[in-house]
Task: structure prediction
Amino acid sequence: MKDNKNTGKRSLLTANFSTILSIALVLFMVASMVLISFHLWNLSSQIKEEVSFTVYLAEDTQDADIEQLNNELQQNSLVKTSKIISKQEASKMMDKVMGEGHLDVLDGFNPYQSSIEVHLKAENFTVKQIKNFITTLESKKEVDSVDYRDNLINNINSGVSNATTFFIIILIALLVISITLINHTINLTINTKKLLIRSMQLVGAKASFIRRPFLIKALWLGLSAGVLAVIFAIAVMFWVSTLLEGFDFKPYYSFYIIVAIGIIILGVLLTLLFSYIAVIRNMNLKNYKLYN
Result:
């Protein structure tokens, strides 16, 4: 008799662990997709903000006017950073490319123009905004010309748009699959108790009384699965951090915490919802289906 009880407990523990593991793996896939999408979006923003525009200044522009123009750019809501590059600095930069003293053939004459290097914010990185920005700059008397790579901007925007669309589709598909799998797992778990549910109905138990133990168990299963999924995600992130030694994850800790809490809440809500539906379905089950 004691052996039968122990065997029953082990079977119950195994069944519960299998259910938790199944739900946790599904939640882990969702968490992974969210984290990958976030870092790809963040990477695309960094790439956009690395692209610079060079504003070449007119030869007779005074230093005070250059400073004023630079201050205007820094106060512009589209601009992330701007930096003045003097003729002397431009010459030194070209020394690294063409070799020191490359201006000796010109008897020391410096043909380079003073310029301002401008980086735009990633959220303002649209072709229309950039063209308007360039047109406004070129209309200023201090500006001789603006050098920007139109094709590069189009390629970056096109690539980011395609990648975003792809990952949104994958994420939606993954969410649908996840919800279906969790629903199926919960249904299988509760369907094994359909005779117990009918027995409770026959002795006059109220619907709320019948539902309560299943919902409590669903809460525990969802919470356990969510925490396990977060542990899996942390382990994978730690492994990735060992591969990407130069990458700093610290700035994103707050986002990771939000994702972890979201995954746990998602696990609890889904298991509670599907358990509630499954219990109601089994309470309304026809007699001839009880033994099918």
